[in-house]
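Re-run with default settings, no changes from the original entry. Doing this only to confirm the output is reproducible before filing.
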Amino acid sequence: MGLNQRSLGILEAIIEGHIASGEPIGSRTIAKQHQEKMSPATVRNVMADLEEMGFIASPHTSAGRIPTDKGYRFYVDTMLHVRDLSLKQRRNIESHCNAVDLHVEALLKRVGNLLSDMSCYTGVVLVPRFSASRFRHIEFVPLSHNRLLAIFVSGTGAVQNKILKVEEGLPSADELQHAGNYLNQSLHGMTIRQVRRVIAEKMQEERVKYDRLMHQALTLSSKMFDTDMDDDIIIEGATNMLDYPDFADPEAMKRLFKAFEKKKLLIELLDMSQDSSEVQIYIGGQTRYQDFRGCSLISARYTNGEEALGSIGVIGPSRMFYSQVIPVVDYTARLISRMLKRELE
């Protein structure tokens, strides 16, 4: 059964009314507000059809109706009118992101706060994956007789430190400097995935086996890049969700914060956003992540101009103001992408 204009109008009124109030929407309310003159009885008949189709549900026997996840999905995909950001909103985003000398980690944390503040929901940011980082610079600092500190700087300016154990005696400071210089010249601009492959290939070359400096440099770098750093996610404003009656039920609140604690699930959701250049919307009950029932995630990837580095997003109740949050997430992701592209030029 398809939806005619009357059914579409009533479904839209129920969804937008519930988003604004958090309350079930009754037939009398819609009959009064609807441009087309209809009796409450006519509205009830349409609502019964919409409920049968799974777009709305009745939380109580004699109450109005609320949207289901299927209803929200239909609304987002076919009916939503996304608002343009005001000049003030754009300048607010730009002023937060364009701070002088802001490292990538600090920038992304600030973005998480910004998304939370502007949406009044929870801001989430998936930081760049280490294996997708580009090699810019590495330096080795001696610590003790068998340990040294490797300092790696990625193409975005992110810094990773790792303590390495050396089995065959600690190289001198000059040798460590030469090793770093060799790697910086040989590997500059490669992704860590490429770096691992190149190191493995070079280690098999006969000349490397007899060139102490090259062997030393490649051995140290392989220790630095042998395992991926943990993927990390920034979560800002989680307690904002407690302000919404949607999570007043202890079970719903417990489920929500359990989802926040399971960072792996959030990472998987945000990771999916990197496959598309468009804003993605995930509605909790329609994903395989049941801890997100009652929630929606609006997310978008950010890039360095060539490849996806991570994702940003906003988690809110399923009845979040999609038309307001989508442009905030979209504009912020595009701004970060432009900034990271300039960083690499």
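The mean pLDDT is 85. The domain at 5-78 is CATH 1.10.10.10 (Arc Repressor Mutant, subunit A).
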